[in-house]
UniProtKB/TrEMBL annotation:
<feature type="binding site">
    <location>
        <position position="170"/>
    </location>
    <ligand>
        <name>substrate</name>
    </ligand>
</feature>
<keyword id="KW-0413">Isomerase</keyword>
<comment type="subunit">
    <text>Homodimer.</text>
</comment>
<dbReference type="InterPro" id="IPR035990">
    <property type="entry name" value="TIM_sf"/>
</dbReference>
<comment type="function">
    <text>Involved in the gluconeogenesis. Catalyzes stereospecifically the conversion of dihydroxyacetone phosphate (DHAP) to D-glyceraldehyde-3-phosphate (G3P).</text>
</comment>
<keyword id="KW-0312">Gluconeogenesis</keyword>
<feature type="active site" description="Electrophile">
    <location>
        <position position="93"/>
    </location>
</feature>
<feature type="binding site">
    <location>
        <position position="209"/>
    </location>
    <ligand>
        <name>substrate</name>
    </ligand>
</feature>
<dbReference type="InterPro" id="IPR020861">
    <property type="entry name" value="Triosephosphate_isomerase_AS"/>
</dbReference>
<dbReference type="Pfam" id="PF00121">
    <property type="entry name" value="TIM"/>
</dbReference>
<comment type="pathway">
    <text>Carbohydrate metabolism; erythritol degradation.</text>
</comment>
<keyword id="KW-0324">Glycolysis</keyword>
<dbReference type="InterPro" id="IPR000652">
    <property type="entry name" value="Triosephosphate_isomerase"/>
</dbReference>
<dbReference type="GO" id="GO:0004807">
    <property type="term" value="F:triose-phosphate isomerase activity"/>
</dbReference>
<feature type="binding site">
    <location>
        <begin position="230"/>
        <end position="231"/>
    </location>
    <ligand>
        <name>substrate</name>
    </ligand>
</feature>
<keyword id="KW-0963">Cytoplasm</keyword>
<feature type="binding site">
    <location>
        <begin position="10"/>
        <end position="12"/>
    </location>
    <ligand>
        <name>substrate</name>
    </ligand>
</feature>
Length: 247
């Protein structure tokens, strides 16, 4: 498996300056887990302050525009994220795909723009409940990987895939370890098909209702190289229990 376990908190549209106390607590404690790579993706309004408040952990955006600048009211470009102190950005989260109508092509263009700006990328894929019930989960996710992963020879070193079944996000439901293992192995096969040997080095994270209670089991599944954590990343205490489970 590629690199250290990577535990990333996605704060979504949560957090004002008061949350910087959680950042400081996470950052202080992260020093006790040198074998785990820890990062937070706060809302864009907090990226600069989060970078300032943290010495050890990575800081990321949650999305980026494909253009570097221009007449795109409300959007934020990858070079702007970088300038604000981000190390990486999430792209293709299911909330962006569903609520903002982002296609695989849009997600791929965003991933390419982020890498061109010097950011790492966490690229999210995942099936709906109806697709899983129809037995289409692996083919749907493999198609998303094929059509939304970044392009170029250097790309595999710059990004991770996050497998996030849509029906597991924020619901308290998680797939069986067998289903997680099967999906991560299917994603790995697709990455190798796309990138050759370099595809073996791409980390594949699991996301969807990861909590202190299930983290150790999920992280022990073959090919699970870390976790993308939503709700449980909003308090330092619960997030650090997940970091501890990865150590
Ligand atoms: C997410 O939205 O990326 C996520 C994994 O959320 P949660 O952990 O709350 O299910």
């Amino acid at each position: 498996m590629a690199g250290l376990p990577y535990i990333v908190g996605n704060w979504k549209m949560n957090g004002t300056r008061a949350m910087l106390n959680e950042v400081r607590a996470i950052d202080r404690a992260a020093g006790r887990f040198p074998r785990v790579q820890v990062a937070i993706a706060p809302p864009a309004t907090l990226i600069y302050r989060t970078r300032d408040a943290a010495e050890i952990i990575g800081v990321g955006g949650q999305d980026c525009h494909v253009q570097e600048s221009g007449a795109f009211t409300g959007d934020i470009s990858a070079p702007m994220l970088k300038d604000a102190g981000a190390d990486f950005t999430i792209v293709g989260h299911s909330e962006r795909r569903t609520l903002h109508g982002e296609s695989d092509g849009d997600v791929q263009a965003k991933a390419d723009a982020a890498i061109a700006a010097g950011l790492g990328v966490i690229l999210c894929v995942g099936e709906s409940e109806a697709q899983r019930d129809a037995g289409e989960a692996e083919s749907v996710v493999a198609a998303q990987v094929a059509a939304s992963c970044p392009q170029g020879e250097q790309a595999p070193e710059k990004f991770s895939v996050a497998y996030e079944p849509i029906w597991a996000i924020g619901t308290g439901r998680v797939p069986s370890v067998e289903d997680v293992a099967a999906m991560h192995s299917a994603i790995r096969a697709k990455l190798v098909e796309l990138y050759g040997d370099s595809g073996t080095g791409v980390r594949i994270l699991y996301g969807g209702s990861v909590k202190a209670e299930n983290a150790a089991e999920l992280l022990s599944v073959p090919e699970v190289g870390g976790a993308l954590v939503g709700g449980a990343s909003l308090s330092a205490e619960s997030f650090l229990s997940i970091v501890g489970a990865a150590a």
